[in-house]
Amino acid sequence: MKKIILTICILIVTFSELYAQKNINVAVFSKTAGFRHESIETGIAHFKKWAKTSNWDIVFSEETSFFSDENLAFTDVLVFLSTTGDILDESSKKAIKKYINKGGGFVGIHSASDTEYNWPWYYQMIGAQFKSHPKIQQATLHVNHTSKHPSIKHFNTTFKVVDEWYNFNAPVLSHVNVLMSLDENSYDGGTMNNKHPIAWYHFYDGGRVFYTGMGHTNDIFDNPLYEKHIIEAVNWASGTTN
């Protein structure tokens, strides 16, 4: 009996280790129908690097046809990397919605909020819609450490960085959980009455959704704090961290 119990314990540990070592399947989509950020190529290069160190199996696409039930069945996290404009057709929208409904993860970076303005479901998922931005400049961000989200644990209470800071068409939707907010007194051109979330997460329609407004410049991808911000966001969206 003791041998049987020991064998069962060994099998449980073995299966647990195999599960823990399972790679995360990440799909990075960067199609644009409006402004195209130069930093997309920089972001792709960094995602390739992060995949090697983070146990991700990664694919890249700018083809709307990528969004099929078959492809998304093998996707743990879908990343919209500075997408812009209307980039999806009805078939791809249906596939993405089904993917989220089944528990898929989504990470939106920078101009993912400047995407699909005419799709109400996407607006509710992404949490805000881009309106305008001032010149690229340094700003101070306040980090909401009452949230234990892994994407911000490594930040101090405040964080200063140079990037392009989005103003949104309306207040960020109230059903998201704010992770970082801009201090509009620290830079020129904020229009959100100092109620200016810039990174957030929520559980939406069955899936895990994360968005950060940072990601316009090439340089920010080399910032180790930002790198960890994105890596931990992807891991969270996959469901492997809480």
TrEMBL record:
Coiled coil start-end: none
Domain spans labelled ThuA-like: 25-237
SUPFAM superfamilies per UniProt: Class I glutamine amidotransferase-like
Family annotation (PANTHER family): GALACTOSE-BINDING DOMAIN-LIKE SUPERFAMILY PROTEIN, SECRETED GLYCOSYL HYDROLASE
Name of this protein: ThuA-like domain-containing protein
Organism name: Lutibacter oceani
